[in-house]
Every structure is written in structure tokens, then in C-alpha cells.
Specification:
The chain is an all-alpha fold. It has six helices and no strands. The protein has one domain.
Length: 127
């Protein structure tokens, strides 16, 4: 993987800038670093990327309740894609039905309403 990245230095630089914008923003805009890592854990889990999952999980700190809630949501959100619905028009022939993900009724206390909404939005973007 490193050899591939080294062949495209601009792509590597832009990936690093994206990482810094997400996890070291000049203005965090009211989104905590732990929330940012929680969303990244969820997305890495959906992508089944063990290395990224381990990396972002460290950003959760020692919050075992949050980690367990995220693990449960990763299992609930697992799906195969892409799927979705296009607006009426030429692309609508590619519409494909898929599951509609919502955070479990048993985990919102561990996640809170903001993080629950963020996970649901991230899932929409994933598939």
C-alpha cells in the first residue's frame, strides 16, 4: 500500500490534509475529538478495515461503554452496497433498494443524540 501511495505524492499529501482537517481542525466547531474518532470507528468498522478501526479506536480513550455501543452499531449497520435512490431522471434506472439504518433504541444513551445522528448520516454516505 505504501508503494502505491508513494507513486502519487499529491494524493498522499491530500489524504494527510484531509486527516488533519478532520482530527486537528483549527476550529473544531463544537465537535469533540472523541466524537470525531467515534464516527471514524463506525466508518472503519463498516468498511471492515481492521487497521483503521484499531487506529481510530485509540481515540476513544477508556470509554468502554462508547466502544461497546459502536461495536453493536457496526454489526447493525453492516451491509453491501452501493444502494440508494436517485431523483427521477436518467440515473433512476440504477436505483437499488437496501436496508435503512437507524441507531438501535438500546444505544442512544451511550451515543447521545448528536453522535447517533452523525452515525446515521455517515451510513448514508457509505452505501
Amino acid at each position: 500500500m505504501k508503494a502505491l501511495r508513494d507513486q502519487r505524492p499529491e494524493a498522499r499529501l491530500n489524504a494527510q490534509k484531509s486527516y488533519e482537517a478532520l482530527f486537528q481542525p483549527a476550529d473544531p466547531g463544537g465537535v469533540s475529538l472523541q466524537e470525531r474518532h467515534a464516527i471514524a470507528v463506525f466508518v472503519a468498522g463498516l468498511h471492515r478495515d481492521a487497521a483503521a478501526l484499531a487506529h481510530f479506536r485509540r481515540g476513544l480513550g477508556a470509554d468502554a461503554v462508547l466502544a461497546a455501543a459502536l461495536d453493536a452499531e457496526i454489526l447493525r449497520g453492516a451491509a453491501s452496497g452501493p444502494y440508494g435512490r436517485y431523483p427521477d431522471g436518467p440515473l433512476s434506472v440504477e436505483n437499488k433498494a437496501g436496508p435503512s439504518y437507524r441507531v438501535s433504541a438500546s444505544t442512544p444513551d451511550a451515543l447521545g443524540p448528536r453522535l447517533s445522528a452523525a452515525l446515521e448520516h455517515a451510513h448514508l454516505q457509505r452505501f
